[in-house]
Amino acid sequence: MYHLILIVIIVSASFAMPAFANGSPDEVIQAVEKHYSGLMDMTARVKQKNYLKSLDKTQTFSGALAIRKPGRLRLDYTNGQRIVIDGNEAWFYSEKSKQVIKRAFADFEQANIPVAFLLGAASIRDDFEVSQPDKKNPRLLDLKPKRAGAAMTRVRISVDNGGRITELVIFDRSGNTSTVAFSDIAEDAGVDEEQFRFSVPRGTEIIEQ
Fold first, then answer.
1. If phi over 0 gives left and psi between -120 and 50 gives alpha, with beta otherwise, what is residue 87?
2. Residue 99 domain-assigned?
3. In terms of pTM, does the model score above 0.85?
């Protein structure tokens, strides 16, 4: 009986330990890429903070996020703003101004949508150099773009034991930062394709860029 209890304790302890407690940057990012390469859709609550250096001001938003591969994203903010990507085009809608900006969606960085980073999380090593800013926390990673002239200078991500991104911070060349934290995450629950078809509300001005 004693040996059985000891085995149970050892097994329980092994499950409680982080998946990469002493992992190298490459080991951690492999876990992230593996997680997102197998992911078909997800929903989450988001809390976003945008720091504008020129104004020394922080704007805080919250909302609901839905993602579906390939290349589909919807983000509904509680302040009436909405972002929808249907795989080809990105729509930025403001209920307050009665305007929607429509532009072609090339990649998450050029669209300037921090949460859209998740759409490319399955191939991070192709686009970024990976490092660990805090050796005591292997699940905190800094990503530096390989592409010259990239709008962002760095992305910092926090990762849970399963390789899921729980928070990201994007730093741009103007000194601005966007911090996005994810909660209530649900994955592969079958997100409806209809969510990613934007219907322009009556009386809304369309601005194409």
1. left
2. yes
3. no
